[in-house]
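Late entry, evening session. Most of the bench is empty. Finally got around to the prediction I had been postponing all week. Sequence below, unchanged from the version circulated by S.P.
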Amino acid sequence: MYNSPSEVKMRLTMEEKKQYHDHIVKFADYAEAIVNTIEASNENKELQLQLAVPVIEQTAQMVDLLSDTFLDIVESGREPNAQDIRVFEAEIRKLFASIISVTRQVQKISDTK
């Protein structure tokens, strides 16, 4: 279903462009879901939010950068180059590192209870 950036030809239909862009922007929905979950919680909202903020911020930065990069590629009509691919991969790695860090913090808190 998904092609790697190096396989994507930028001669996409408008619908295909929209679909790829929607996949990028979908990460913002996940960040919003985190906030909604915390707001609906009855326990330790402040602590939960403190732990979640780095992931939410990293997600927002990633969505902005990847969205801008993707739109630049599409608007220019060029194919993704090695730098574009490195940008995408680096941003996704940063997000996963942030998620792993929060997961570890939550585990430490859980272990002390």
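Two things to note before I forget:
Residues 12-111 form one domain.
The mean pLDDT is 83.
Will write this up properly tomorrow.
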